[in-house]
């Protein structure tokens, strides 16, 4: 019976792992590819382009995070492997990090995106501030991409240990 339960968990485990690694890669690529490409433009332009990307991420990331976290936790519940709970909660760590660290930075960048051309000319420090906020957002997003990456690695380690290792 135990092999049947383990076999029945495989699709849920695979969904949790795949979504965790996909989420990590999507978040990492924003900091490593997308935002640096945007930053090659002047601040008034890249802050305007940041807003739609940010709003899409705000709609997509919470659902992907919940799916991954719940898949790993359900897998832990079905298999009795408490290490999978840890992996699921590690993926879920995106939420507090995003709310406490990333949200204020994101709001500031979106506010700069709403500036008119006159406001940029009147406030000379705005360009430097926008640059600082975008660098902070990139670094914070690197950290945020680490939560699902570490959760996925923890889950793989747990699953391999439960099945006799490599």
UniProtKB/TrEMBL annotation:
The chain crosses the membrane at residues 14-35, 56-77, 83-102. It is found in: Membrane. It comes from Aspergillus pseudoustus. The keyword Transmembrane helix applies. Belongs to the anthrone oxygenase family. InterPro entries: Anthrone_oxy. It is a multi-pass membrane protein. This is DUF1772-domain-containing protein. The lineage of its organism: Eukaryota, Fungi, Dikarya, Ascomycota, Pezizomycotina. The keyword ATP-binding does not apply.
């Amino acid at each position: 019976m135990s092999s049947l339960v383990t076999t029945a968990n495989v699709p849920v485990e695979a969904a949790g792992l795949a979504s965790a690694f996909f989420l990590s890669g999507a978040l990492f690529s924003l900091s490593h590819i997308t935002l640096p490409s945007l930053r090659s433009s002047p601040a008034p332009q890249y802050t305007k382009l940041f807003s739609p990307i940010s709003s899409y991420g705000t709609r997509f990331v919470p659902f992907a995070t919940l799916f991954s976290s719940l898949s790993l936790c359900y897998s832990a519940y079905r298999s009795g492997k408490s290490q999978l709970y840890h992996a699921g909660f590690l993926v879920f760590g995106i939420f507090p990090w995003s709310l406490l660290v990333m949200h204020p930075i994101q709001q500031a960048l979106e506010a700069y995106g709403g500036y008119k051309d006159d406001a940029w000319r009147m406030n000379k420090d705005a360009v430097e501030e926008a640059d600082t906020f975008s660098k902070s957002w990139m670094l914070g997003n690197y950290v945020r991409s680490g939560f699902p990456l570490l959760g996925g690695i923890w889950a793989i380690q747990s699953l391999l240990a439960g099945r006799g290792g490599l």
